[in-house]
């Protein structure tokens, strides 16, 4: 089966299997292959496959379609063809199962810089642990930063714990691109030992390294990291404390509530907006008093964060507070309050349907349901908009039921 390797700077390399039929490639979100770069047209090109043959066609793109450096309007694809759509590089592999590991390993060692970078990308897609040592060698010994970064991303995709020690050694490299590739890879490898290793960089002399360490720990969503992040709240640099606050919110461990509330009460040392947002992510009723108080903060950004956070607490006490926030002088606060009220309204409707189905006489809103997963469907507008009187009428009806 043929496949298409899609590489865009700043994004993970993707592998798309090509079956009989047509796929459209371009910047439009509904495309089979949605590209991220602004130099690609909405519908840039298409690939049509039938049997063992695949043809590529330019769809009147603004910047043209290039295959192996030559501008084309159409071409039958051959194994290894390199397609350029905007700044996205797409590589056509005629038979996914026949990608020769030995050939790629040789290319990683002896090819020119672009070939070595591509080989590292493709080796990561193979998903076999037999290429780990070769990729680690490329990371340590290759002279090209892009090849090192590609090898690092590939190691992250493979998820082999043997790479963790070497990757940790490059966490404070001066090459920013490589440093962020290392960070992405370590998030994928994050067991407790990796978290311990990343946490050591919270004491690094370079503030940017400490910020990145806090970010990586948050992205692991592993509660083992919370103790290190709580210690980072004492960092001398405001930006590091901010990163630690955000990371604690990403992890969402209710045991950190005391640290976050303490941070909320120290606005001179902590970014109050991010503290409120992180408290909201804990989704526990114990944050209710401080979130309600934040609705009256002098900063509209803090009030907006509080209104959004209260929408995650499915307790009836939040409704009157959110209705009052619909009269806020700031449009962003009113919008956040309206969306939070809509989340609550949908929550009540779901509860009523479940009650009717079960035939049990239970309360519509139960504090015990706090902590259940977030709504899967995004809320984009409220049933009653930002009209406080309509929301108040609705709430009066709910209380009488």
UniProtKB/TrEMBL annotation:
SUPFAM superfamilies noted in UniProt: ARM repeat (SSF48371), SMAD/FHA domain (SSF49879)
Record-level Gene Ontology MF annotations: oxidoreductase activity
Lineage, top ranks: Bacteria, Pseudomonadati, Candidatus Hydrogenedentota, Candidatus Abyssobacteria
Protein name: FHA domain-containing protein
Domain (FHA): residue spans on this chain: 23-72
Biological role: Catalyzes the hydroxylation of the N(6)-(4-aminobutyl)-L-lysine intermediate produced by deoxyhypusine synthase/DHPS on a critical lysine of the eukaryotic translation initiation factor 5A/eIF-5A. This is the second step of the post-translational modification of that lysine into an unusual amino acid residue named hypusine. Hypusination is unique to mature eIF-5A factor and is essential for its function.
Originating species: Candidatus Abyssobacteria bacterium SURF_17
Pfam families for this protein: FHA, HEAT_2, HEAT_PBS
Highest rank taxon of the organism: Bacteria
